[in-house]
Amino acid sequence: DTEVTQTPKHLVMGMTNKKSLKCEQHMGHRAMYWYKQKAKKPPELMFVYSYEKLSINESVPSRFSPECPNSSLLNLHLHALQPEDSALYLCASSQGTSGSGETQYFGPGTRLLVL
Amino acid sequence: AQKITQTQPGMFVQEKEAVTLDCTYDTSDPSYGLFWYKQPSSGEMIFLIYQGSYDQQNATEGRYSLNFQKARKSANLVISASQLGDSAMYFCAMREVSNTGKLIFGQGTTLQVKP
After folding, report:
1. What pLDDT was estimated at residue B101?
2. Is A83 left (phi over 0), alpha (psi -120 to 50) or beta?
3. B86 at the A interface (CB within 8 A)?
4. Which residues of chain A register pLDDT less than 50?
5. Any idea what DSSP says for residue A16?
6. What is the pLDDT of residues A53-69, one digit of tens each?
7. How many CA atoms lie within 13 A of B3 on its CB side?
8. Of chain A's two ends, which shows fewer C-beta atoms within 10 Å, N or C?
9. What part of A 54-73 touches B (C-beta under 8 Å)?
């Protein structure tokens, strides 16, 4: 089973709202990732969690706040977003981060629209 | 400098024919992994195939095979017997041992399968 689930599938929010994206995996993976993807572009890495600790933050604005409550769950808290933050947000997981062969498995994504 | 280059923004193939999607990469790390992902219009990134830099044989997974030419730094994806459901965006990606956790994506190739 290589399933990563994400909720919600779609989200519309105003610039003053606070919302959260949720990602879950039950593959026993110890690394989880958030990516942002604009239309017709490759995904851009935002955050990496390894063993529930934040290991990479790709200089993401503080209006995006990640959280890893346990090894199966990854949240992305959103606050005071801008219209340019509208995108597909993808979550992924892998066994670990130490090898070049660690395959990342992606969820279906959350399509976010900021008005 | 771009580490992953996909030179074909868009391609067409007739149903049941084979198609090759090009990918070249650049790295000085002797240990790296190469991945191909499929992204249909629904948004989910689907892992297709993996090739390690030390693998002697080309990877195959069903109708997908990876034509790995290490000296040329190319990792082309070959899809045999194309199906209408193969219409999607395809991304080539690389993961270096020295770049823990980071998957570097190419710009993608949009494949359309004609009936």
Report:
1. 67
2. alpha
3. no
4. none
5. T
6. 999 999 999 999 999 99
7. 16
8. N
9. 55-56
